[in-house]
Amino acid sequence: MASKLCSVPELPFSIEPSSRAPHRSLLPSYLSVEKLPRPHRITCSRSSLHRTVVPTVTPAVVNDEITESLNSEAEITSPASSKVVLVVGGTGGVGQLVVASLLKRDIKTRLILRDPDKAFSLFGEQDEERLKVWKGDTRNSQDLRPSMFEGVTHVICCTGTTAFPSKRWEGDNSPERVDWEGVRNLVAALPKSLKRVVLVSSVGVTKSNELPWSIMNLFGVLKYKKMGEDFLRSSSLPFTILRPGRLTDGPYTSYDLNTLLKATAGQRRAVLVGQGDKLVGEASRIVVAEACIQLLEMEFAEGEAFEINSIEVLLRIFLFRVYLNNQSIALGDGVSFYF
Fold first, then answer.
1. 77, 278, 289, 326: least buried by Cβ within 10 Å?
2. What is the pLDDT of residues 91-143, one digit of tens each?
3. Distance (Å, rounded) from C-alpha 294 to C-alpha 198?
4. H or E element, residue 132
């Protein structure tokens, strides 16, 4: 059953799900985009369970574009975190946004990279205690030494390659090697003391034999991502799997840290979250990166897989109006709109 749309008050950054029902506030039905500068909230419906999550991506309208700023003052309201987060795939389209946001939050970050020099070009010179970079390749299990994981409390894995043959496949960088063997090697090497592993996968992994997913899976990308998911599930590690739609916005590979912190997300601003692999659509890399960080400490998300999409601003306004008029939209069980 679809959850009902609601508005919640402005809150400072929080990574804990709210234990109280969202506060309802009346909103004018003529809301314009400029009147919606409030942090995102994601409502995840799982049958009778409804929880509210408060990510910290803050929108602003600049030259008719929506800018998702990851460096607003509201995001730095909590004291320095005791977490030590290992990001694997930290120079990719999603990974570099994850790393930039972790550093801005003053969270100790560790990277495993094939080319450590990329970290300096993207994130600048950092104190080693704040950002430590290891040279390694998840495709080679011998590269993943125990010393790389010392002190690490959480892991975000956002490695990946293209679904169809491209230049990114050069050097044995196929989906089988990256999404299956790489994930398998990483999971097998991780210490059992970890508090959470967040794996970025893809929508459609459970429907690779159905259209349109069978087309995307012509070279096995969905099959191998599902194999990686299953290997993580079979481990004794606490995990959450995030399945975004087709990634949009970026990647911002040629930009520096300051640019990453002011990444542009076009007009796909509201977030659609579901379970059961029912979503079809696109997802902003910025939203996906933020969701990865938020999922590190959400207790209710442990052992679960969530699909995530982004939707157009005009649709977001339309859904607000539906709510104000006490109308309902059948989205299907486990699918919710978030504003």
1. 326
2. 999 999 999 999 999 999 999 999 999 999 889 889 889 999 999 999 999 99
3. 10
4. strand 131-135
Asked if 283 and 244 count as a contact pair (C-beta separation under 8 A), the reply is yes
Beta bridge mates, 42: 53
Residues 309, 270: Cα–Cα separation, whole Å: 9
H helix or E strand, kind and range, residue 242: strand 239-244
Residue tagged 């069978």 (tokens) = 214
At 224 the three-state DSSP class reads helix
Residue 181 CA to residue 172 CA, distance in Å, equals: 12
User: Which residue, chain included where needed, has tokens 């794996």?
Assistant: 199
Beta carbons of 233 and 42 less than 8 angstroms apart: no
3-state secondary structure of 135: strand
Structure tokens at 158: 């956002």
Question: Which tokens hold the place of 40?
Answer: 């995102």
Position 312 scores a pLDDT of 67
List the domains of the chain with CATH numbers.
Answer: 73-268+279-308 (3.40.50.720)
Structure tokens at 45: 């419906």
Rounded CA separation 226/242 (Å): 12
Coil, strand, or helix at residue 134? strand
